[in-house]
# Entry
Amino acid sequence: MTKTLLQAFQWELPADGSHWRHLTEIAPQLKMLGFTGVWLPPAYKGAAGINDVGYGTYDLYDLGEFDQKGTVPTKYGTKEEYLKCIDTFHALEMEVYADVVLNHFLGADETEVVEAVAYDENNRNKEISGEEQIEAWSKFTFPGRQGKYDDYQWTWKNFKGVDYDSRQKQHAIFAFKGKEWADVDEEKGNFDYLMGADLDLSNPETVANLNRWGKWYQALTQVDGYRLDAVKHMRFNFWIDWLKQRVAENIPDKEMYVVAEYWSNELDTLVDYLDASGSIFDLFDVPLHYHLLAASDSMGSYDMRNLFQGTLVDARPDFATTFVDNHDTQKGQSLESWIEGWFKVQAYAAILLRRQGTPMVFYGDLFGIPTEKIDPVGPQLAMLLKIRRLLADGPEVDYLDHEDIIGWTRTGTLRKPHSGFAVVMTNRQGGTKEMTMSAIHAGEIFRDALGNCEETVTIDDEGQGVFPVKDGSISVWVNEETLERLM
Ligand code: CA
# Structure
């Protein structure tokens, strides 16, 4: 099945516990748009309670059920509403992927006095203290849950370290006595520590607990896959066993879609990580995102021939989940790198109308971000989704051969008359591009499905057409009779 996925949240959603209900309501609309699956945000209670977007994991077993961190519901609603939302998508034969954040916990219930060593914030291989006693927020007892589902209490032994000594009121990267940072990404010397209480994934008891939770969570939710948070900060082979168990517990022979977030613009780093982590899941194509950003930001000087060069979808197409923007790249967030409105449709064509890669559309693009006064991308995005679903057939032929105007065709097939399309886009001046569809289209009249160009293009006897595009724009040319059926 061709996947077309939606990241079904953005950072600035109102913190009013309404999102699961809202998604339940719009699920049929998402189905109509052509989405086959949705990535839902982390569903368990975060340290910031109802204001937590979900990445500040506090209690994995509290899916909006217990009065903890000042609220019963999470930012998105209650456990009951979450499960109903998943059931609704499943009833529509859509898949649901859960966001799991297993690198760190935040919001400990108690402190512990622990021996620890401080490391330089910018070089975590460099010790800046001897062993000293610190008071660490590292004990999680979950008093509001009182042991329901699981009565395990987490202590410093389950963690590698913290970034705060509340006795001295000192900030530093502290590793607990006897603990070593895992061999992970080398940014900052060693990037095992990201935030909060960093989970010790070399401690079998910690791993056993995360597996016990995974078993409980999957049996309860019946999710169809996972989005793995912050994997560059976690022991690289951790996920092999964890996912092996989830797959074994799932319906036999069911494929599970898993995508991991490894935030790096370096293709080599991503490929090395895929190898080291068992090549068992997709990664987000971060290099492609930055290429799209460069094209969006360069005032026309970006060389469009490079759009897919050095991207994951080019190097490892079967492992690439492609995206335009996400909750971290949106304006005001930690990785802000927002692709501007004028280039959004080009960017979405570069993920939705390509044969390779699994495209993930961003909620903030589909529905806008009202708090930032950002409008939805609009009907052209819906049209791209429709073209992907109905016309993306046959081989793909690239014309990535001009610094301003590039294009590609899907030739269509004999089996499906009138399938196929021709994409032409530019980040500078408009013009035309001669491309071959296929001689099976000889004599057909093509029109721009996006409505940016008014004229028609006639496909010649050899299947060629000369396809126009306007300045800083995109056109997607399809058979005109087919287009009438799409409208
Ligand atoms: Ca870590």
Remarks:
- The chain has eleven helices and 25 strands.
- The mean pLDDT is 97.
- Residues 103, 192-194, 198, 233-234 surround calcium ion (CB under 6 Å).
- Residues 204-221 form the longest helix (18 residues).
